[in-house]
Amino acid sequence: MTHKNEAWQALRPALFLIAGVLPALLMALVVQFFAPNDIKHGYGPFTTVIPWVGAAGLILAIFYQPSRIGWCLRGLITVLLMFGLSLILPQVIGFAIVLYFSVVDPGVHVLILLVLLMILLGPTLLALQYCWQVVRVSSVRQRCLLGLVAIAIMWPVGYGFYLNN
User: Fold this and answer.
1) Which stretches are transmembrane (predicted)?
2) Mean of the pLDDT values across residues 56-83?
């Protein structure tokens, strides 16, 4: 193992904990207790459960690297992360669009939006990075199965976004 890999292996758990798990747990608490009813009903009754599922996937991702575990556990962690991503990706895109257009509108609190985007971006990027590692070490058949699962998980979110706009 090279020096660069050893340094990454030492920093990986701390990075996943600080940038991924803690913001994900914070978001899960916010959705659980403070989300307005229209958001809860927009995603159905699972809105309060999905952030906890995504946070559980990030917690498992701390301890299990895709290259060192079997296909079943790797697939389970990836599915948990995909459920979390299905709820957080529309929020990240929405905050990014609002932040982009708020540069023109001085009435929007840009700093608050930027902090919220950063809190959302940490777990999102780490989950996407883990899913990418899973794709890299999986066989073609496993990639096809993960692709079908991703479509099945993301389809209701995309369809709901299409219906609401």
Assistant:
1) 14-34, 46-64, 76-101, 107-132, 144-162
2) 93
Q: At what angle do helices 71-102 and 50-63 cross, to 10 degrees?
A: 120
What is the three-class DSSP state of 11?
A: helix
Residue 76 carries which side chain, given as an amino acid letter?
A: L
3-state SS, residue 35: coil
d(CA 123, CA 89): 10
The Cα–Cα gap between 115 and 132 comes to: 26
pLDDT tens, position by position, 97-117? 777 776 655 655 667 777 777
Given a cut of 80, is residue 160 above it in pLDDT? Answer: no
Count of domains for the chain: 1
Could you give the CA distance from residue 114 to residue 82 in angstroms, rounded to a whole number? 24
Stated as kind and residue range, the H or E segment containing 32 is helix 22-34
Q: Which two tokens stand for residue 109?
A: 């609190």
Contacts with 116 (C-beta within 8 Å, 6 or more apart), sequence order: 95
Tokens (6 digits) for 91: 């929020």
The boundaries of the domain holding residue 146 are 3-164
Mean pLDDT across the chain: 82
